Amino acid sequence: MNLAPSADQRAIQEAFADVFARESTPARVRAAEAAGFDPGLWALLVELGAPGIAVGEELGGAGTGMVELALMAAEAGRRIACVPLVEAVVAATTLAAHSSGDGAARTLLEDALRGDALISFLPRPAANGEVVMAPAGAVADGLLALDGEELVVARGAAPGGAGDFGLLACADRRLDGERLVLATGEEARREFATALGRWRLASAAALAGLAAEAIAIGVRYTTERVQFGVQIGTFQALQQPLADAVTAADGAELLALAAAWRHDQGVADWTEMAAIAHAHAAASAESACAIALHAHGGYGYTLEYDIQLYLRRAKALALLGGDPAATWREIGLATVAAVA
Predict the structure, then answer these.
(1) How far is CA 191 from CA 90, 195, 264, in A?
(2) What is the value of pTM for the model shown?
(3) Full DSSP string of 82-113
(4) Which domains does the chain have, with CATH numbers?
(5) Distance between CA 124 and CA 269 in Å, rounded?
(6) How do residues 98-140 score in pLDDT, each as one tens digit?
(7) 10 Å Cβ neighbour count for 234?
(8) Which of 10, 66, 78, 315 is 20 to 30 A from residue 281's alpha carbon, by CA?
């Protein structure tokens, strides 16, 4: 398995790295903080074709795969971009599977790729027709969710934000109103599991990028802050945990790319690898942010320092898919079943 990006993949990564570095600066993130959504950045990403990166060319997408999505998501995570990029791409790939004809799913997919409708995937099943703290729920035109025995796209007016939750425009949403049923029963559960796996691997990549940048922020601060006449970065008590965080973040990146590669190659265990990647990346990102914040001392918690933005996003992304402990139990049961 060679996880090194190809020349074309590297070009995609570098292009989006430049976009996010330029258009998702700390100032832009802070400006979008209250809403958790940057409409100007989202419009630009739509113009660049980002929502359709993993949709076939015959349906108006870029025709690439999950590896390209992971590389793009890592750069979005690195700049804590205030857009539901992963959720929109996963929703688009799910709609694409139902767009062979000229039906409602095809029309909705075309609307999403043009930017006329923002459709966000919900990584947690609905409960009694309602989703709590849906990512992009405050701004999305439609939510793609597993609602009981149905995989649906529920459309309706966005209710506005439910408060700060990692700058992710989360809100509680009901799934009534206009509904497009994509699948029912076992097929619905199977398609949701596929979408969830894609969300996990792409979110893992975003968390890995976030962790890497959080570490860089911490390292920069340790080279600037002087205590007892020396840079605090010379203290082993700071060097060791930062080095450990680098190792964990590198591992998160490799796991996310491995899951994406398995998906694109059709390897059967890609969903299990995606779960492992997300669980590890979530823990690694939270730890990296906490270590980098600790390097700032008490200043790290104050609003004027960027590291607190990263810690809030890391904690939120770790919880969007549900209880992390439940994911680890899922991984354990799958491992036992594979060797039984």
Answers:
(1) 11, 6, 16
(2) 0.94
(3) SS-HHHHHHHHHHHHTT-SSSSHHHHHHHHHH
(4) 190-339 (1.20.140.10)
(5) 21
(6) 998 779 999 999 999 999 999 999 999 998 888 888 999 999 9
(7) 13
(8) 10
